[in-house]
Amino acid sequence: MKKSTVLLVLVAALGYFVDAYDLILFVVLRKSSLEELGLIGQQNTDIGLILFNIQMVGMLIGGVLFGILGDKKGRLSVLFGSIVLYSLANIANGFVNDVWTYGVFRFLAGIGLAGELGVGVTIVAESMPKEIRGYGTSILAMVGASGAVVAALVGDAFYWRYAYYLGGGMGLLLLLLRFGIFESEMFKKAKGQTAERGDFISLFTKKDRFKRYLACMLIGFPIFFMVTILMQMAPEVAKALGIQGKVTAGQAVMYVYGGLAFGDILSGFVSQQLQSRRKTIFIFQGICMVMCFVYLNLWGATNTAVFVTCAIMGAASGYWIVLITMSAEQFGTNLRATVATTIPNFARGAAVPITIIHQAITKWLDGDLIKAAIIVGIITFGAAFWANSTLKESFTKDLDYVE
User: Fold this and answer.
1) Contact between 376 and 225 (Cβ < 8 Å)
2) Is 385 contained in some domain?
3) Greatest alpha-carbon span in the chain
4) Within 13 Å and on the Cβ side, how many CA atoms surround 276?
């Protein structure tokens, strides 16, 4: 493999590292940062969820924006443009003194964070031989998941403003590595063809194309059921289950994403050995579903049991990178960045309706958030299994074509 390709994978991986760090950082810093801004108790929780949802809305908008730009203007321009935006927004978050400003910069950070993963996977998949591209995207994801673990450690160990400065600074330093990175040859070739590039609306105008797009999106929903309900609400879930010992969101993040870093590599290896993205996703989905329901039935267990379960759940959710790779493989070069960027961000954006539905069901069940979580889990996993069954295998698919 060429040195330029190795450097490309490294830059994309480090970009996702900073992306994951900044994405998870608010989850870890929510309580301490809002307490300093004068919000305590239930108000802290409620405003924290609102800010998290604002960030997710930013990611939905950014996913569409950067995906279209990635197909129209190029993969590299989006890769580095997103880094600049989320880095500056996170530095700005370290200076906020009121909730309104906090929300504005979380929104801008969300837009920037949306461009990193999908475009990174797209350019790596297009630049590596089809027989081994799964390894390249798995390395990218493993390094990225490590960023979330670092966010958990930094968020628990440092003053919250300093943690934001660090994230923004890492992103700006990463820009120095852009020299020596080259644009995808497939994209250059597609620029000379007549097919419309980055036409987001076209994903909805043909039945087969829309079905593929929707299926890829639904497969990712269970992961954000886990992130939103089981990880972000870990303290509340632990209290409801009567867990012995302290459980914080930061601890849950660390163990889930520590497992995810291992799962990203493992899922990539499994998909290469099975020569199948779909079979790999089915296997990991099944394990993830079982572990989620084990987690929700740890009545009276110790916090150690919770953390072990979180780590296994995280490893099982490692099918995330196989999903993004498969999504990129399902579509032509003229739409690939649009798809690979919007799908993970729409899946992440599912955190908003998942939260709302869980809250509504919890209220309907007279405050039983555990039963509500089980119901939401059944819905999201059921949709994901069905969606995966509808897609065609794409393991050795030649990506040099347009829609």
Assistant:
1) yes
2) yes
3) 63
4) 12
- Give a yes or no: residue 194 inside a domain: no
What sign has the CA pseudo-torsion 335, 218, 352, 311? negative
Structure-block tokens of residue 17: 């590292």
- Six-digit token string for 273: 């050995």
The β-bridge partners of 302 are: 244
Residue 104 domain-assigned (yes or no): yes
Range of the domain at 32: 3-176+203-390
Residue among 154, 34, 142 at smallest CA distance from 93: 34
Give the closest residue to 283 by CA, choosing from 271, 293, 295. Answer: 271
Work out the percent of the chain whose per-residue pLDDT is above 70: 96
Looking up residue 129, the CATH number of its domain turns out to be: 1.20.1250.20
Alpha-carbon distance of 136 to 172, in angstroms, equals 24
- Number of structural domains the chain divides into: 1
**Which structure tokens are listed for 198?**
């980055």
Give the per-residue pLDDT at 274.
93
CB atoms < 10 A from the CB of 387, how many?
21
Instruction: Tell me the torsion sign for CA atoms 255, 256, 260, 266.
Output: positive
Task: Flag residues of the chain having pLDDT under 50.
Answer: none
Nearest to 25 by CA among 104, 126, 110: 110
pTM of the model: 0.80
- The answer to whether 187 and 339 have CB atoms below 8 angstroms apart is no
**Would you tell me how many other CB atoms lie within 10 Å of the CB of residue 159?**
13
The answer to the question of residue 327 being in a domain is yes
Per DSSP, 199 falls in state -
CB distance 234 to 243 below 8 Å: no
Q: Which residue has the tokens 């007549």?
A: 194
For tokens 């960027």, the residue is 341
